[in-house]
Amino acid sequence: MLTSFGTKPPQPRVRRLVTAAALSLSLAAGAVGVSAAAAQAAGPYEKGPNPTQALLDAPRGPFQVAQVAVTGQTGFGGGQIYYPTDTTKGTYGAVAIVPGFLMPWLSMAWLGPRLASHGFVVIGIETSSLFDDPPTRGKELQAALDYVVNDQRVSSRIDRNRLAVAGWSMGGGGTLQAALDRPSLKAAIPIAAVHFTIQNFSQVRVPTAFLASESDEIAPPAQWQKPQYESIPASTEKVYQEMNDASHFFTVFENNRQTTLMVSWLKRWVDQDTRYTQFICPGPTGPDIQEYRSTCPM
Q: Is 141 part of a structural domain of the chain?
């Protein structure tokens, strides 16, 4: 019998083939949707290959880097800018880094090209005086960011809405100060931080990653970094990583534990790249990690 459409009703085998084809198309569409959603979830500023521990441990990341000097600037004492040479990937986030008491930028200059090679513009600064206190270093970090986003040699490469700060010792205290003073920052990384006038950072809203060392004889974690970390509310994303049997000066030597956390934290919060969450949550383990805590960002 003919149907009202003028054709024979489909036979059972034909119906099975049609059903299977429809199911295949549905699954394929679903797979495309999942793939697209996953790509979108990685972050709007995603750059570089899928991250691996080997990539983070390498002496350089996937981007070639160039360097220019900064001299005689008001608000800080000059320094060096490191930046990716690739101009085909859009703009990059920028991070300012300040060293500690009595220390020049050269003491931790290895961080400049290392971080820049993962897709950031880095300005490593000299302080106006080697004796500058943490609040002053916080102001110098902010002055350096204001400088680098307007430096015509690199400004076109920078997204001025994606900025971060980092620093060591009194520079770490300056990093916390900058996070208090400029809540629009996307990330802060205090290293063995010391801040003499503030220990309660409950007003910090900037995602903050603390690096500390178990055998720090100058700024013991129990006295400095742990209270700082604990004072920041759980509503602010934060990490505390304490290196086993390391001294206050661990950051002057190139080390992969430090750069894994720093690159991952900057990628996660400056670039909003969720591919790097795996290196933050649940976090590293092993004989060189004394303690690790995290709010486990999603």
A: yes
Q: Which two tokens stand for residue 242?
A: 């304490």
pTM, entire model: 0.86
**Active site (annotated) includes residue 181:** no
CB 84 within 8 A of CB 72: no
79 forms beta bridges with 70, 125
Question: Which CATH number fits the domain that encloses residue 202?
Answer: 3.40.50.1820
Answer yes or no: 248 catalytic: yes
263 found inside a domain: yes
Catalytic residue among 132, 133, 151, 216: 216
- Total domains in the fold of the chain: 1
CB 223 within 8 A of CB 217: no
Place of tokens 């459409």: 5
Catalytic: which of 213, 248, 264, 271? 248
Domain of residue 131, residue span = 60-294
CB 100 within 8 A of CB 73: no
216 is catalytic: yes
pLDDT per residue as tens digits for the range 158-199: 999 999 999 999 999 999 999 999 999 999 999 999 999 999
